[in-house]
Amino acid sequence: MKKGIAFYNVGDVFDHFLLVKAATKGVASNGKPFLTLILKDTTGEIEAKLWEATPEDEELFQSEMLVRVMGDVNQFRGRPQLKIQSIRPAQATDGVQISDFIEKAPVDKETLLEQITEIIFEMVNPNLQRMVRYFIKKYQDDLLVYPAAVKNHHEYVSGLAYHIVSMLRIAKELKSLYPEVNKDLLYAGIILHDLGKLKELSGISAPSYTLEGKLIGHIPIMVEEIGQAAKDLQIDGEEVLILQHMILSHHGKAEWGSPKPPLVREAELLHLIDLIDAKMNMLNRALEKVNPGEFTERLFAMENRQFYKPTFEEK
Amino acid sequence: MKKGIAFYNVGDVFDHFLLVKAATKGVASNGKPFLTLILKDTTGEIEAKLWEATPEDEELFQSEMLVRVMGDVNQFRGRPQLKIQSIRPAQATDGVQISDFIEKAPVDKETLLEQITEIIFEMVNPNLQRMVRYFIKKYQDDLLVYPAAVKNHHEYVSGLAYHIVSMLRIAKELKSLYPEVNKDLLYAGIILHDLGKLKELSGISAPSYTLEGKLIGHIPIMVEEIGQAAKDLQIDGEEVLILQHMILSHHGKAEWGSPKPPLVREAELLHLIDLIDAKMNMLNRALEKVNPGEFTERLFAMENRQFYKPTFEEK
Amino acid sequence: MKKGIAFYNVGDVFDHFLLVKAATKGVASNGKPFLTLILKDTTGEIEAKLWEATPEDEELFQSEMLVRVMGDVNQFRGRPQLKIQSIRPAQATDGVQISDFIEKAPVDKETLLEQITEIIFEMVNPNLQRMVRYFIKKYQDDLLVYPAAVKNHHEYVSGLAYHIVSMLRIAKELKSLYPEVNKDLLYAGIILHDLGKLKELSGISAPSYTLEGKLIGHIPIMVEEIGQAAKDLQIDGEEVLILQHMILSHHGKAEWGSPKPPLVREAELLHLIDLIDAKMNMLNRALEKVNPGEFTERLFAMENRQFYKPTFEEK
Amino acid sequence: MKKGIAFYNVGDVFDHFLLVKAATKGVASNGKPFLTLILKDTTGEIEAKLWEATPEDEELFQSEMLVRVMGDVNQFRGRPQLKIQSIRPAQATDGVQISDFIEKAPVDKETLLEQITEIIFEMVNPNLQRMVRYFIKKYQDDLLVYPAAVKNHHEYVSGLAYHIVSMLRIAKELKSLYPEVNKDLLYAGIILHDLGKLKELSGISAPSYTLEGKLIGHIPIMVEEIGQAAKDLQIDGEEVLILQHMILSHHGKAEWGSPKPPLVREAELLHLIDLIDAKMNMLNRALEKVNPGEFTERLFAMENRQFYKPTFEEK
Amino acid sequence: MKKGIAFYNVGDVFDHFLLVKAATKGVASNGKPFLTLILKDTTGEIEAKLWEATPEDEELFQSEMLVRVMGDVNQFRGRPQLKIQSIRPAQATDGVQISDFIEKAPVDKETLLEQITEIIFEMVNPNLQRMVRYFIKKYQDDLLVYPAAVKNHHEYVSGLAYHIVSMLRIAKELKSLYPEVNKDLLYAGIILHDLGKLKELSGISAPSYTLEGKLIGHIPIMVEEIGQAAKDLQIDGEEVLILQHMILSHHGKAEWGSPKPPLVREAELLHLIDLIDAKMNMLNRALEKVNPGEFTERLFAMENRQFYKPTFEEK
Amino acid sequence: MKKGIAFYNVGDVFDHFLLVKAATKGVASNGKPFLTLILKDTTGEIEAKLWEATPEDEELFQSEMLVRVMGDVNQFRGRPQLKIQSIRPAQATDGVQISDFIEKAPVDKETLLEQITEIIFEMVNPNLQRMVRYFIKKYQDDLLVYPAAVKNHHEYVSGLAYHIVSMLRIAKELKSLYPEVNKDLLYAGIILHDLGKLKELSGISAPSYTLEGKLIGHIPIMVEEIGQAAKDLQIDGEEVLILQHMILSHHGKAEWGSPKPPLVREAELLHLIDLIDAKMNMLNRALEKVNPGEFTERLFAMENRQFYKPTFEEK
What we know:
6 copies of one chain form a homohexamer.
Chain A: E1 13-27, E2 33-41, E3 44-50, H1 55-60, E4 66-76, E5 79-89, H2 109-122, H3 126-145, H4 159-177, H5 183-192, H6 197-200, H7 211-215, H8 218-233, H9 238-249, H10 265-288
Parallel strand pairs in A: 3-5
Antiparallel strand pairs in A: 1-2, 1-4, 2-3, 4-5
Helix pairs in contact in A: 2-3, 2-4, 2-5, 3-5, 3-8, 4-5, 4-10, 5-9, 5-10, 8-9, 9-10
């Protein structure tokens, strides 16, 4: 058996389980109804057509369910498409579960929590430490499973926590290189910077933007949350204001969604560390899919560039 | 007597009261200390030099006090400058008061409050009405005296309230032209849109930006305040989210400080009405100072344009 | 019967009259000729396919004629498409007429003319009044039926006159708020600002750009017309120059087609009023089509934004 | 005697005639009035100070008059400044005249007219030829003496005609390389493209912008003039429209003042030829002033670049 | 017989030889394999479908071979498509050769070499002349057959040499108009400016970018080559540096690939001459395909403009 | 004694040694010559005026010499200025040396070399290692003393080597976080990326741009050097091309001087690490000069931002 849907080529026959990501109805040019399904496993996704779908089919196949599907991999407008021959819902006896079909961070959530907790122990500024503890406690469940984004980078289960932990590691090293850096402030900023995504995104698998996400966005959402947390915790040191500023400015520029640019050293560092980790995540995953001597596909969030993997990487 | 400092020309002798806006020390090229004062009345301001200032002078003349000053109006690098011959603090017996030297809105604050209150009475959506009442009550004193900005438009006492009232009048008329508009939403947005300036600006006369103003800015400040007000008032309808969005988006574009552009009809209208009233305020005040057939000075906040007053305006 | 083509869903059968907006021939992958028709009524338009079209069909079905058409509403690439079962030209006895199938301004042309005329009566500057009368007389017929644009806003019969009248109403109110405004100048600018479109656009239903429109554009066309009118009427006051400037600058910026930005107060106001009325026209029509709690389609001329209709709009 | 004011260095004594370009009054820090004069000859200009100026001095020394001046060349803020020791108006007996102090094109106006006329003879399209003759006749006097601009390029007497003649020569060569080019159209476009400057600029020596120049600009002015000329000459071929388009588009882009970009081959060529001749004029004059191995001053109209003159240019 | 593939319309039957530019396999929605061929002659190219292709077909038909093809010209998504009825490789006895199917410069390569050589004879600066000779000798074969680009302008056999020769002719004329220009420098810059393309592009017919082309680009490639040539020839005058600068800056701006803008007169001229010749090549070829009174297709490399051919061009 | 010139305030008397950075002559408004000196020590620099300078003074005081100077610190246009009372050249017996007056990296050059050498030992790719050794050997002397820039960041003795070593440390940590990174490639890129500055800058103390620096710039200079080194070392693996690409792209964008953006993972990382180290160097040095609760001066190379030092930094 092949490793996953991403490894099938035009002409192959596919016969295995997949997760339904989306299902929409259509009417073919011959007037007959059909279903367009987006099917996925951890290696990728494929558009599939169930021609001459019955009303029962339309009822049956819904987003977020597992199916057993058999069909031919064709090509349509330059992209692979699965022409379904047979399809049925997965059953208990099939021994497959949804979590096997969703991409996950390479580190489990217990370890991620442990690493975040360890960093919090290192903090000495009581205001910053209390603030961070408050949020970890409040959002622990979601924080450990949410993706960091809808697409582009860390867009998988536990992506947000994995992104935080990677950033904390970079921060730790930069602190040792630049001892002037306020470690507590930088750690607090990293842990909190994207928590607004827990309200901006609709969920864990196949997330979209909530109404609040569309009209306000994760940055102002989190600025407000910090203000309210400070009230609840009765903290009124300048740390609150600086933390709000760090969240507000972490996209770096007004055009990128930060109404104020970083105006505090640790805010600038937070922005740079976020940039590095997001870019490396995108780059590494794109390069993993190509052989030495080849270019990756275009990476939209990296100015549409295609990256080259040198031939001497083999050695 | 001339009408005010703005009407004095090079060569004139000035002998009257002025308000000290700022005072800074310097040392002249001959090694002697001097004072640079910015002096103002309601018509404008002038830089003044008190050469060979004594340590007593340096102590005595401070920002926000009234002085009687006599001197010659010279020109330095193309701008008028007052060479002080004599200067003394104003005394009780002089019969002058600070409020006579600060520019004020053309309508008194009682009338402004009345007009805002009247509009609130017209509102029928209880969530929006309660929210607006809450803020008017909380900030009434400052709201009625604050300027709307540090410079450019409505930068005078009661400028903020005057700006709100003008915008409400425009809103009322546009509502009658476009009946689809949600009047309550638009009114609430107008009344609240700039209240964050009460925290962004340091005060009423000669205001500067507070630390919170520099690091967060009046838009996120007010978004947070609305969230907290909703908690206090236990309002949780969609009105809260929409109001926050209106505040957030009222500058129209990311580059202008709004991380989300207007995505609700009344948010778009709020942005446009704000634009019109701010521009008309700048334009009318600049054109007032020139004769028909002349151009105004460059207006920085209007893309540095100089505006022309047609000759037939005389008729 | 459903209200119009825009209200039909995939799977519905359509059987009614429509106006042919465009007709083009094609050859199907089976080698057989077919016709692609764009059919419309006042609610919208739909692409329709007449498969296996005969040479007679190709001759018969032309742009700007009414047809009776029966067929199924399918979906093709995410958009509805009508698969024609039968089609025939409308006949005199069908009792339908083209004007019923074209969108029109919500006010009839007599009323529009009346409202414009009323405003002209209010003008007191003889040069401006004569100029405006001259153009109203010269272009009255076209002015009352032309659209204001090919697409985006007021793109329907009498759209131009309706846009003018709406703008005049806004102008009247702003004059009362800002008494410094020169009413006559602003009224004249509004009435004349887009008259160049009578030469820029090819006609009333389904207009395209004329050669003059493509190579010169409505702004320089109208600047020239005002110059010639002034010659004909022997007016040579500064009003002519200022009016030409208002037309020239009414798009606000060089990038938007105005080689000079507004440099006269009423020119700036003209630009702002034009902006408000165009945007409100687009917004109101887009929001009318969606339910509370939904977003509109993307509005190209409003930076591709999708607007939200709050749920509390129902109340 | 040195060749001209541009060749004097700090420390030199100047004692010769100069033309007053501008005169403004000031008051020195010692309270005494002084005059700031801008004095020029064909090599350049210098700011001059007449300290302790009498009221008679202020009356006497006016723009556009010749003076005999003696003084020291100092330096003020990095720029040379003339400290006047003595100054008097030039007298008839001094044998100097204004035209000796203004820069002129290197070719006399009779020759320029001859070269333009010769080109007109070569034209065969009667509509284009008549149009060009009409304008040459109408504006002959001004056309032969006006500068092509207020500053940057060809900003000297007969600069406009000289610019036209240079462009015609380039056009002639490009026509021979690219025979598809419509020679008559290109010639007509070149001759007429900047004639609007005769209304945009106030005069020949020390020109500024007229009100019409500021509010309308030379491009729309000339588009209108061509329309009126066509009416007068009863020409209504497509040539009129194309010529208007060429004028309208000759700055190449909206941001540079052309509401339509070139959409006809000869319009594109006109834009490119204009660019080359303007740039070469600026470059050659700037390089003339420096030695091999040196950089020119910053050229504002060439993106503020400084150009290098290679050392091997000496050979 | 029609003149070439570009002149066939939908509905025509094509039966002639064509060159295979590219061949890719696909699987139709009925599950059967097919071939998509891009076929071309000197007038243009067409996409062709060979439905139900056999494995032998897939082997047989490859890029860069000549085929005899018969089929119907259909339309698919608004573009012509050839539905192949029969296809076979061309044979020796068919009397056709590849060079007849590739577009070539309008001048043969011997003449181009002669014209370049002639210019080199005119050069008097020994360093520049030796440098140019070195490269002409080194790259003569490729230089005379390479295209100047992959698309947009001079994208045909000998396009590079033809572009050089056209530019040299313009240079010669501009030298006579502006005698200050250093002829040798300008000639050398023109001849060498695009030689880096011999390494940037993969070949002559259907060229693509090499890895070196993608990662370095023709400009830095050629800067390096000049440095190495100077070493080989033991030239160390300033000419080397200036030539490198001319190559480096010839795209005019950083955004267009020149890290330094032109800072030497001849570098600026090189950029302008390159611009003119590239634009005229694009424009003339696009206008050649349309009739008077029509617009060309959109020209991507000319800001997507469509150009108009005036009706009086017929005369 | 105060610590250095940067710590003197207006009104203080300065009496100590300083290094002359620049000396220029002027003539005062009283007609007398004066000298403007820029004097510096490791803490900063100050403009100084020697009024009524004799011709001997003008001869004597030159750039790059040490002087003993006494005078008063005044203020001129908001900046401190030293009014010289007495000045004399430093003598051997004064026991001061130039190196004490120039800012240096905080690590000595032996240590820097050691750290670079250590990294080279870790490299295993022979092509990359040989290339790096070649350049370290070729440029060792200059590399260890040159600044990394003329201003903004690491603009002090050994700044370049210090910048390289800091970047190597960051690289080492990122390699451990992202094991996919090719360590040898990244190290080689970091060590070589700015070596072109050794030709771009004129020297160590008070450096300016060389002609080669102005016309070519350090990026293409180094691309060429790598090509030549590869020839000398007879290396022709893909490593050469990739290294050249890394140098070429390390500024990240065309507008910032890189004609190709990073298209290899390690090239992107090189760009990001360069950014972090340059920014941290600027930020730390600016923040060092201010107290908690204050803002820094505007940092030109960081978009003119002023950074805030939080009050809780004291704790």
